[in-house]
Amino acid sequence: MHCAQYTAGTCRSCQWLDKPYATQLIDKQHDLSELLGGLEVGEWREPVAGQEQAFRNKAKMVVSGSVERPLLGMLHRDGTPVDLCECPLYPASFGEVFRHLKTFIARAGLTPYNVARKRGELKHLLLTQSQHNGGLMLRFVLRSETKLTQLRAALPWLMQQVPDLQVVSANIQPVHMAILEGEREIALTSQQALEEYFNQVPLFIRPQSFFQTNPQVAAALYATARDWVAERDISSMWDLFCGVGGFGLHCAKPETRLTGIEISAEAIVCAKISAEKLGLKHVEFQALDSTGFATGNEQVPELVLVNPPRRGIGSELCQYLDNMAPERLLYSSCNAQTMAKDIRELKNYRIERVQLFDMFPHTAHYEVLTLLVRV
Predict the structure, then answer these.
(1) Which of 85, 251, 270, 334 is catalytic?
(2) pLDDT number for residue 375
(3) Given a cut of 90, is residue 159 above it in pLDDT?
(4) CA-CA distance, 66 to 109, in Å (whole number)?
(5) Which residues hold S-adenosyl-L-methionine (predicted)?
């Protein structure tokens, strides 16, 4: 993959871009095997890869420059801006959207936030695309509500220029820190969720809910989890750290008793809509802390699926699951280091199979799916 910014040395986010893609996969598989060293693995599945470029469904752009000539991209630590509108990780359609957004910023008078001076209003633009129908969600991250009236007044022009825009909101992030977004979200359109489909399963993306950024590989990950669970007649399962419900909704059959737990209320709203569309009658999604829910529950499902953030599930939940001892654990991880640490604490389980999913080409990061079976 060719990237002008990488060649110029102005952006090195894709640290492995000089490395042939086949070598990247070999190195990631080697890293995973090193992390699981000393643990018996029943079966190593071949890594799953997708496109090498234009695979991202989301752009997170720092806004800098001036209101007349905004830059969308990133800032180096010394404050030097880099425009990433032509980043080859984004689909080609994003380029036209970025062009209209630059004009819109000037029309609406949204002054880019200047980090050094702590002045200005517009901090970030967050753009997400549905692969299902091409619909777009756009979030303006603002320092305050000062420019909201101007933004609302100019928005019809932007909606006309970018007809695929379906969901627009303003996020208020008043803190002078490297924090992407704040807690408060203000809807600017009546529609507040993008509809997406992975493997004929409807999923919904709301402004503050997490969603995978590589749809092609994410669909393969969900389908694999579904297939592994389907090998056994599972009647009850928990989906902890469930997000918008992608794993549980893929794995649940009409008769399955599924409980999905996620701390984000926005994500739970999405999961409930999906379950209703699928006609699942024995599904319950709750906005709770996953560890708190599990450790306070005496029921033992046949399968527990965990998809934690990078920190892993932690010692408390590991110890509880090890003692509770459901028949199977399915662990999806975006950080194999913490996953390996967690698995070593699960003394009553063995690894039946493991598979790497390359969600993040040209970087050292990857996703892993591991099936653990009670000894």
Answers:
(1) 334
(2) 96
(3) yes
(4) 10
(5) 212, 241, 262, 307
129 is in an annotated binding site: no
Instruction: Name the amino acid, one letter, at 99.
Output: R
Radius of gyration of the chain (CA): 22
Q: Is 242 assigned a catalytic role?
A: no
Taken in order 136, 141, 144, 150, is the CA torsion positive or negative? negative
Q: Residue 364's domain spans which residues? A: 4-52+214-374
CATH of the domain at 358: 3.40.50.150
Question: Coil, strand or helix: which one is 232?
Answer: coil
Q: 91-137 pLDDT, tens per residue?
A: 999 999 999 999 999 999 999 999 999 999 999 999 999 999 999 99
Residue 100 maps to which CATH number? 2.40.50.1070
Is 199 part of a structural domain of the chain?
no
> Annotation-wise, does 318 bind a ligand?
no
- pTM of the prediction? 0.95
The pair of three-digit structure tokens given for residue 55, joined into one six-digit string = 């695979």
**Same domain for 247 and 133:** no
Whether residue 251 is annotated as binding a ligand: the answer is no
